[in-house]
Amino acid sequence: MRAVSLIGILLLGSVLTACGGLPKGEQNYPKTEDERDAERFGKVTGEDGIVLFGARTLPRGAEGGTGIGVNTYLWRASLDALSFMPLASADPFGGVIITDWYSPPQNPNERVKVTLYVLDRDLRADGVRAAVFRQVQNGANWQDAAVDPRTGTDLEDAILTRARQMRIAAQNRK
Fold first, then answer.
1. One Pfam family from the UniProt entry (predicted)?
2. By CB distance 3.0 to 4.6 Å, which of 50, 85, 118, 171 could disulfide with 99?
3. In b/e form, how buried is each residue of 82-93, taking b as 16+ CB within 10 angstroms?
4. Phi-psi bin for 102: left (phi > 0), alpha (psi -120 to 50), beta?
């Protein structure tokens, strides 16, 4: 008898928890197949712009644009700043640019690699981060070497400055 009442209490508790745990507005089940697909995959079009995979992009004419997942000006300025280096990967939807190793002509025994992250759809001071890696040649081997912390910060500042210039130029054309 005691086991039966314990099971009943546990079942009642789980039912109450399940019912009370849903926020208002989400208790309207069953959902249609289209509603489930929209939640799972995102809307393709709509008044607010385009929503894909749960990430909202801005409507046409907004600062960030709709073609890529990050701020257009930061993305273009980043590509401009790294244009002298060979690119290993550039993902405009994730906002990641990875360069291949680059050896400056004046110092072939040193090479540099950059991983740059564009973090926001807005043109903000904290919208870009750079990780700079450096290696020096020791005989036939490349060894990791220290990088001045200001190098990444200087690169970020140069990208932000260029992005602001691009935005001002675009606003003046309108």
1. DUF3576
2. 85
3. beeeeeeebebe
4. beta
